[in-house]
Amino acid sequence: RASAANVLNFGGLRIAGLSGIYKEYNYRKGHFEFTPFNKDQVRSVYHVRELEVFQLAQMSSKIDIFVSHDWPTKVTNHGDSKSLYRLKPDFRRDVNSKSGLGNPKGIIS
User: Fold this and answer.
1) Contact at 8 Å (CB) between 53 and 4?
2) Who contacts 67 (Cβ-Cβ below 8 Å, separation ≥6)?
3) Which of 84, 51, 65 is nearest to 8 (CA)?
């Protein structure tokens, strides 16, 4: 299975990671994909699932570094979004779309 969550200690730091891309229609499903993958499963196997986010949320000790494959929602509110949109014009469309850019379960406040 490609999408996963994990935590490890390295050099005195606690590092958490969440692999995969958020897609609302697969978020609440379990991983149902088995090889050989059909056309739809080739994509869905890489989608983040609620269980993985839940597993990370159970961490009771501090996480020093969090690594995610997907953009956190509202990431464009931080930094130089004008330059980002100039370099990547499609991001503006994605940010303003109904589904938005990134993972809403990884919101930056």
Assistant:
1) no
2) 15, 16, 17, 18
3) 65
The pLDDT-based confidence of 86 (bands split at 50, 70, 90) is: very high
99 has a pLDDT exceeding 80? no
Element (H, E) at 18: strand 13-18
Instruction: Judge contact between 101 and 91, C-beta under 8 A.
Output: yes
From CA 78, how far away is CA 48, in angstroms rounded? 24
Distance, in Å, from the CA atom of 44 to the CA atom of 25, rounded to the nearest integer, reads: 10
Give the number of C-alpha atoms closer than 13 A to the C-alpha of residue 28, restricted to the C-beta side.
2
Confidence of residue 20 (pLDDT cuts 50, 70, 90): confident
Encoded tokens for 74? 């509202």
Residue 101 is predicted with a pLDDT of 75
